Structures are given as C-alpha cells and as structure tokens.
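**User:** Once you have settled down, spend some time on the protein underneath, comparing sequence with structure tokens, and judge whether sequence predicts the tokens.
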Amino acid sequence: MEDMSESPCESVPSQLGGGPDFHGLIKDAVVVLTRLPEYKMSTLRPPTPQQFYSEDESLSSSDSDLQWEPEDDSSDSDFSLSNSKQKSVKPLKSDTVRTPAPSTSGSSNSETAPHCSQDVTPARPSLPVEEIKVDMMVLARRRPMRWQRGKVLEIITREDGRLKYKVGFEEKGRSLVSGHHIAFDTTPKLEQLYVGARVVVQCQDNKYRFRPGILAELPSRKNRLRFLVFIDDHTPVYVGLPSLHLICRPLDDVLEDVPDGSHKRFMKQYLKDWPYPHLTQYRPGQSFNAELNGVQQRCEVQVVDCSLMQVVFQETQRKEWIHRGSIRLEHMTRFSD
C-alpha cells in the first residue's frame, strides 16, 4: 500500500469513533452557502441612477389619463405636441385607472389632483446667476410674441444703474432690451427649471421663431417625461428639454411680463393652486362648448393627452389643443374670478 504520510494532504484523526485505524482519512474542502437576510442584501445592491421622477409616484392616481394615446395630428397654432423621438412611458395594465364616463348632459367632473412629479420646486432655485457677456448668442424680444436669435453687441449701464443689452439679430435689425427680454441660447440644466419659470420656447414648425411663456409642468411619468408650457397667448404645449430656453434675468414676479387679460388671471390662479390645479375630466367623443374667437362654440374631444386634449370645432372643423383647466372651457367658468 502507498505510504499516505508522503501525501501533500495532512491526515487528521477521525471523528467517527473508529479508533486509530482511520488515520488515512483526507481533509476535503467544503463550501457552506448561507442565505443572507433581505436587509443585508439590499445594502449590497448598487444604487440606481437619479430619475426625473420619484419612484414613490403611483400610476394608479385618479388623475391619470394614460389610457389615451396621443395622435400625430398637429394643432393649428404655431405649436404641436412634442415630436421627441424618446419612447412614451406606458403604465402597467393593472395600474391603469379609467376616467369616469361623462354624464349624458355633457357636464364634466372636476379634479384637483397634481399632474407632475412631487419633487417639483415651486420657487426659483438658489443657483449662481449666469453672466451675460458681449458677443454671447441669445434670444431677444423683437415684439411681445416674437423672439429671435441674435448676438449681444454692447452692455449699457443707465444713469439709474439698470443694465440694457444691445442685440444684433441674425435676421437684420437691432434692439436695446432689458435682461428679462433676453434668454440664453443654450439648453438649460434640469436643476434650473421649476414650475413658474419664465421661458422661451422654440416653435416646432419654424426653428427660427420663438415665443415666451411660463413653465407649468416638469417631466414625470404622468405626462410622459415632457415639459408643459403656457405660451403668453394661452396656447399650451408639451415640449422636450432642447426646446426650452431660460430668461436671463426674470422679474421677481414673472406675471408682470405677461400681457394683461384673461390668460394672466388664469396663470395667477394656476400658480396659486399648484400643485393641485383645477382640471376637468373628458373622454374622446364627448361634446361641450369652448371659446373660439371670443364666442362659445360646440366642439368634440378627439384625443386626451395627459393635461391636454385635442378638440375639433363642429362648425369650422378647426382642431386645437386645449388645457383641461383652460378658461376657454365652458365648465371652467365657475372657477374664474
């Protein structure tokens, strides 16, 4: 028999009670698997990346309208729904909540649930002010509803200490404007944006044309990761981040730069009610009255897209996107002053 004492493995006394004759037993490596408690496992998982929205946000909220998919029809205004290439976020089937059916009288239900991420910043964030320099490309106002790209040619200090900026436009002409009438030509960072921010939005049918507005929703799963902006003429539009431009030196009260009228009153109430703005519930095929050219006219809902709906006016077949809390809606007159 081969001498086991020369084996590289050391023999050990038996624990089986077989006496000294069991000296030939060899050590074997044994792996013991122990299941860790869940709380220990969670500490070993890598952190997930920061998202636009809170993971605690529930898709089963009563304000969800995600069972309706937007169509590709564009509105008759300068803006259409965002044609971003990013995929829409669809809810799980079990999480979808059906909107209550409208009554036969055509009336609608009012809701006041929030439509954006609960992580929104309702006030202007405290961030360093970006410097405005000569030769910087900006967007500047030529007329109240017409902004264009140009270059800062000169910065002028008035006797009262106010700064004015001389801008030379790409499409000829110059203007001397205040800081709240120019916007950065660069894409803003997410942390700079908040509900109530004064912005300029690029028209989707004309990349050289821009219009001013107020940011009304930040991206969330409920609005398919888009920004909602109310243009100063009351036109609502969902856009992606590249279409937004921040005003360089916004006024302390952004509403001071909005023309007086019904839209200004609407925005004042909207920001006051935030994050629970008044919204009405509608379904495709429902008919009701909405204002068009100063007159209440009959229209029909074509599609509902989150806080907006596309309607077609029966008399002229004109299609428009309207906010579900708009002052143009017959059912919203009770909330107006």
Observations:
- The chain has a mean pLDDT of 75.
